[in-house]
Amino acid sequence: MGEAGMTRQIEEKRAEFLRRAGQAFERMFGADGQNGLVTFAEREERACEVGDELTRWLMTEHLSLDPAGGRSIEAICPLCGGPARYESAAQAEGELREFQTRRGKVEYRRAAARCPRCRKIFFPA
Ligand SMILES: [Zn+2]
Fold first, then answer.
1. pTM for this model (two decimals)
2. What is the DSSP string of 72-116?
3. In this predicted model, what pLDDT tens digit does every residue of 79-105 receive, in sequence order?
4. Could you tell me the distance, in angstroms and rounded to a whole number, from the CA of residue 21 to the centre of ligand 1?
């Protein structure tokens, strides 16, 4: 992906984040500043719920921009033992992974690595 493509992608994510943050604000404050939340426990529950959703979204989207899925960019080919490279997130075959964060589970697609000699595609452990 070119630099311009990445810039556009990040701006789209920023817009999506701000839209979601606006929804989170609405679910907390509504039109009257209270949104039916009365007790301390209700306010805490709602604030944590909308905050956790934003946190999981940030994790998921951040991982989606990393072709190695949060792992080292280096991979070793299981056939020849040589260095292999991750495909770019856009073109690669993906493997759906689940990850437990402190704010709940997130899913992300981890890209495959390809050995330039063997042409083998694999998912490093
Ligand atoms: Zn190889």
1. 0.71
2. -S-EE-TTT--EEEEPPTTTS-EEEEEEEETTEEEEEEEEPEE-T
3. 999 988 776 655 556 678 788 899 999
4. 45
| Terminal-residue alpha carbon distance, the chain | 25
Question: Could you tell me the distance, in angstroms and rounded to a whole number, from the CA of residue 77 to the centre of ligand 1?
Answer: 5
The alpha carbon of 108 and the centre of ligand 1 are apart by a number of angstroms equal to 26
CA of 43 to the centre of ligand 1 (A): 55
pLDDT in tens, 13-72: 999 999 999 999 999 999 999 999 999 999 999 999 999 999 999 998 988 887 666 555
Distance 46 CA to ligand 1 centre (A): 51
Helix and strand totals (H; E) in the chain: 2, 6
